[in-house]
From TrEMBL:
GO terms for molecular function: exonuclease activity. Keywords: Exonuclease, Hydrolase, Nuclease. Residues 5-201 form the Calcineurin-like phosphoesterase domain. PANTHER family: COMPONENT OF ATP-DEPENDENT DSDNA EXONUCLEASE (PTHR30337), PHOSPHOESTERASE (PTHR30337:SF7). SUPFAM superfamilies: Metallo-dependent phosphatases. This is DNA repair exonuclease. CDD domains: MPP_Mre11_N. It holds the Pfam family Metallophos.
């Protein structure tokens, strides 16, 4: 019976700049900066250990269209490791690393099959004689807004048909609508598997056939928390089995303190230190966000948290630990925007607070940043959670200003 075994990964984002983390201690920042490289090395290790037939990379191998020579040479070296094991690699390029950019070209090894800017089929025969047709499309430019699935044409002559697409499920309104598709579009092609990329969270859109986003191989910010990795896929004409494998080099984690009430600083510090040690048991470096609830703490402890003095204590000496657990933030998860109760004749503060409560348009004032030729490579639009966090911090500032004038 014919079988095929492969790895499906996507969104490597090699050489991500991690610009917002440059204030970290150098050993920790250096490890973060190398994390996207280490994560893909973990993918290659898995491919070799499992003796797969091939590897699929579903777009955004690099973090930018002006891919660095270093990132290209690293990719070449890893693909050469696979070539020595006779493992082929099928690659499409996405919106971040589209083929319309300008860069110094580094030639990839013979085992690398890169799909062109028009949908095409590449045939492949495994060492055991199983015939596979792989279909893919690389972005010719950053903004591909059309449904390109219609260009994928099934070609007879193989036992397995696999589609590779870097695109956006139209039913999900929380991401950029690059190469948008509807689930029905993919199902109508009657392929045996769809290897998707672009969304950085694991997501299975269908199980018959499997249509999967593996997520990215390495989280790059707090919105990309938890294990990241790839799928190991084993297929025969009657059954497909999938197994997720973690490739994360540095974990982003978020935890909440569960204690009901804490009165003393020593108790708070002990509880938070315990959360750090629990994270350290994951046996890999962790960037940790800790969430508290204001009702857990006395007003004195709340002030210590807001002053960031506690944060400094939790970070002390962490750059010398292996693995490190760097506490990125200690914040209050129940800090919602509420009108500030102002007494007396403080109309100016009233108007400021009212304006804050009504502020919903963050996009317009930030548009120069997001459209800037260089800056747009390093920033992402704010999430609703981040907008609420900004409002909460501004309101805290208003409260302090009000109390100073009291």
């Amino acid at each position: 019976m014919e079988t095929v075994k492969f790895i499906h990964c996507a969104d490597l984002h090699l050489d991500s700049p991690f610009v917002g983390l440059k204030t970290l201690p150098k050993p920790i920042y250096d490890e973060m900066k190398e994390s996207t490289f280490h994560a893909f090395s973990n993918v290659v290790d898995l491919a070799i250990d499992e003796a797969v037939d091939f590897v699929i990379i579903a777009g955004d191998l690099y973090d930018g269209e002006d891919r660095s020579i270093r990132a290209q040479l690293f990719l070449k070296k890893e693909l050469e490791r696979l070539e020595k094991e006779d493992i082929h690699v099928f690659i499409i390029h996405g919106n971040h690393d589209h083929l319309g950019g300008k860069w110094t070209k580094v030639n990839m090894p013979f085992n690398a099959h890169i799909f062109k800017t028009k949908a095409e089929m590449i045939p492949y025969t495994t060492k055991t004689g199983s015939k596979v047709h792989l279909y893919g499309y690389s972005y010719p430019k950053k903004h591909v807004l059309d449904n390109v699935v219609s260009e994928y044409k099934k070609v007879d002559g193989a036992t397995f048909h696999i589609g590779i697409l870097h695109g956006h499920d139209s039913s999900d309104r929380s991401h950029y609508r690059y190469a948008p598709f509807q689930l029905k579009d993919l199902l109508d092609k009657e392929f045996d598997y769809w290897a998707l990329g672009h969304i950085h969270k694991q997501r299975i859109l269908s199980e018959n056939p499997y249509i999967i986003y593996p997520g990215n191989t390495q989280g790059r910010n707090r919105k990309e928390s938890g294990p990241k990795g790839c799928y190991l896929v084993e297929m025969n004409p009657y059954r497909t089995e999938i197994h997720f494998h973690e490739t994360t080099a540095v974990l982003w984690e978020s935890v909440e303190l569960q204690e009901e009430t804490i009165e003393q600083f020593d108790d708070l510090f002990q509880q938070l230190s315990h959360l750090k040690e629990v994270a350290r048991q994951k046996k890999k470096p962790v960037i940790l966000d800790i969430h508290l609830r204001k009702k857990q703490l006395s007003s004195t402890l709340q002030e210590i948290v807001e002053s960031e003095e506690l944060l400094d204590l939790l970070r002390e000496g962490e750059e010398f630990e292996n693995p490190f657990v760097w506490v990125r933030s200690v914040s209050f998860s129940d800090e919602y925007i509420q009108p500030i109760p102002l007494e007396g004749n403080y109309e100016f503060f009233r108007e400021l607070n009212e304006t804050l409560l009504q502020l919903n348009d963050f996009e317009r004032p930030l548009s120069p940043l997001f459209s800037h030729r260089v800056a747009k490579k390093y920033v992402q639009p704010l999430t609703k959670e981040e907008e609420m966090e900004i409002k909460a911090k501004v309101q805290q500032m208003f409260s302090r200003l009000f109390s100073m004038g009291d």
